[in-house]
Design a protein that fits this description.
The longest helix is centred in the first third of the chain and has 65 residues, at about 25-90. The chain has a 4-stranded antiparallel sheet. The chain has about 220 residues and is an alpha+beta fold. The protein contains 6 helices and 4 strands. The chain is rod-shaped, with a radius of gyration of 47 Å. The chain folds into 2 domains: about 5-70, no CATH class; about 100-220, Ribosomal protein S6/Translation elongation factor EF1B (Alpha-Beta Plaits, 2-Layer Sandwich), CATH 3.30.70.60. The chain has helices spanning about 5-25, 25-90, 95-100, 105-120, 135-140, 165-175, and strands spanning about 125-130, 155-165, 180-190, 210-220.
Length: about 220
């Protein structure tokens, strides 16, 4: 349907003529002024107040976030204070922990502990075998270790002792109770070879035993 401006103009003119009396009456003009004034004040008031409302909402949300963050920080501070108190309680025991689980293989101190355990048990330490590991911790730090670097934080060692039954039994118990963490993987006990028994031994060779222990010890590999 084609647009006929004459017809449309006629329709709009009728509409305008129908509402014109309302604006021409004094009471109608008063209401119209009040309505438009209210709309204008509302419109300009909204645009004037809107930034303030947005700022208030933003500040309220930020205060809530800061309050939650402050609570989390207080909880962390309380946890740190509690951890510090526990640390002070166990601090005297830290050297013992380092001896039980050193940061390096530290084979020589372990050998000394095994030798002392054999001497205290009344048995003779006849042999001790270890894999290729740094014997001293400073050799690791200075790069003096030979052989491939260790791949596991533990290593095996095989130790043989000779002595009477009671002494061998005591040594096995003491080997598992060293300050250094040591586990016993296997124990083999057989009569001692008479050709290896010292002539100064007070015990007859038939009453002496030879025990072979395979031990595993641990350390913290960094």
């Amino acid at each position: 349907m084609a647009f006929n401006y004459k017809t449309e103009l006629k329709e709009y003119r009728k509409y305008y003529q129908s509402i014109e009396p309302i604006f021409t009456k004094p009471s109608g003009r008063g209401y119209t002024t009040v309505i438009f004034s209210f709309l204008a004040v509302s419109l300009f008031g909204w645009y004037a107040i809107r930034p303030t409302i947005q700022t208030i909402l933003y500040l309220r949300r930020e205060i809530a976030d800061k309050t939650e963050l402050n609570k989390e920080m207080e909880d962390k501070i309380s946890a740190l204070i509690e951890a510090q108190a526990y640390y002070q309680q166990i601090e005297p025991l830290l050297p013992v922990v380092d001896q039980a689980l050193p940061s390096q293989p530290d084979a020589v101190p372990l050998f000394i502990q095994l030798r002392n355990a054999a001497s205290a048990s009344g048995v003779l330490l006849s042999s001790l075998q270890t894999p290729v590991i740094p014997l001293l911790s400073n050799s690791v730090q200075k790069g003096q270790a030979t052989g491939p670097p260790p791949t596991q934080p533990n290593y095996l060692l095989t130790i043989q002792v000779r002595g009477p039954y009671d002494g061998v039994k005591t040594f096995i118990t003491n080997a598992g109770s060293l300050r250094r963490i040591v586990t016993i993987d296997s124990v083999t006990i057989a009569p001692a070879d008479s050709s290896l028994v010292s002539s100064q031994s007070a015990q007859p060779s038939s009453r002496l035993l030879q025990a072979t222990l395979q031990l595993k010890t641990y350390y913290l590999m960094k």
